């Protein structure tokens, strides 16, 4: 008997389990995400004359440059045998370690960064101090701890936070009200986030948490007026695997960041694949066909998750020789889910109605004909039990694209496939 593994159901009534989290949008946050996504790219982070890494983001309005400077416990974390007294003779050792530190930046680092920012976005004044525990970060990422895995997970999350706390930046930006230019950190780079860890020990063990606030450069863009530029980041993106669906995460993050700004101006977000790939830290590579296929699949997945209400026509009209460069520069527009950029969160059903809806999903349909008549139930079933579209498609013997067309009523569900879905639904509901 074939079984489908579910990631588990969220218990009702838990405040941390929501469909989205608030996220402030600013050039500093946008450029920081680019720096994190570009950590593993050789051409993402450049090197200065000493070989030390830096990442520079430029626009017509200004530039932001990120650095990794040796933190107080630098030698203990990377080279225990080296004295902390920094001299030019040791610069090659430090620069190599800093390069390694930048190379560890990843999609997971960006996930943690976005979670930290969600707490800042919830403050009355973004210059106040926020606080979060490692367990809360794990919960917001949708990670369920198994026996023996908690310690390693907490240590991994702590390392991601330390990587963020080591990031410094300098910035020069046009001041539109006065027409002048404002600069931060020219002499001494500012912290992206000022993070302080603290630990509480008792008879039951130790609990680690972090208090943090914006660096002065970031807080310049998050003044009370700037809080208008808050969108909502879909939790479904946080719950995606950073290993298997990293590309989808990055593209979804891009559209949310630019879509929030465009939506508040009454415009649809618009970009060319080359710009999106650059944000994602993805090189153009040699296998053009694979890049296009992955790009198309990622947007279909985003529409399935509800991040995009309408995905663009991405498939190039022809794959004749030379098509790839034209495709890279062909702008496309999407329709971002309204509740991800609007100021007011989406209206939620009353608790009684939500429980009634959940109870209906716990009970499989009476017959396969019900699924054929209302194919949108398939997606609700998968969401309820956290089953990936690819997994269900494999077990009923169709492609992911075909199952997506079933769920969107673009293609009728054959009787044998509906029967197979009903069998799986009954088995999963019985085990839940």
Can you give the mean pLDDT? Answer: 78
Spans where pLDDT lies below 50 across 5 or more residues: 1-18, 74-96, 343-349
Beta-strand percent range: 15-25%
Largest beta-sheet characterization: 6 strands, antiparallel
List the helices and strands and how they pair.
Blueprint: E1 20-24, H1 27-37, E2 46-47, E3 53-59, E4 62-68, H2 74-78, H3 91-103, H4 107-121, E5 130-133, H5 134-140, H6 150-165, E6 167-175, E7 180-184, E8 190-191, E9 193-202, E10 205-214, H7 216-220, E11 230-234, H8 235-238, H9 246-264, E12 270-271, H10 273-279, H11 288-305, E13 308-310, H12 323-328, E14 332-333, E15 335-336, H13 351-362, H14 368-373, H15 376-385, H16 389-396, H17 400-407, H18 415-431
Antiparallel strand pairs: 1-11, 2-3, 3-4, 4-6, 5-10, 6-7, 6-8, 9-10, 12-14, 13-15
Description:
It is a single chain. The chain has 3 domains: 209 residues, no CATH class; 105 residues; 79 residues, 434 Repressor (Amino-terminal Domain). The N terminus is likely disordered. Strands 2, 3, 4, 6, 7 and 8 form a 6-stranded antiparallel sheet that branches. The protein has 432 residues and is of the alpha+beta class. It has 18 helices and 15 strands. α1 packs antiparallel against α4 and α16 packs across α17.
Labels describing this entry:
single chain, three-stranded antiparallel β-sheet, six-stranded antiparallel β-sheet, alpha+beta, 432 residues
How would you concisely characterize the structure shown here?
The protein has 432 residues and is an alpha+beta fold. The chain has helices spanning 27-37, 74-78, 91-103, 107-121, 134-140, 150-165, 216-220, 235-238, 246-264, 273-279, 288-305, 323-328, 351-362, 368-373, 376-385, 389-396, 400-407, 415-431, and strands at 20-24, 46-47, 53-59, 62-68, 130-133, 167-175, 180-184, 190-191, 193-202, 205-214, 230-234, 270-271, 308-310, 332-333, 335-336.
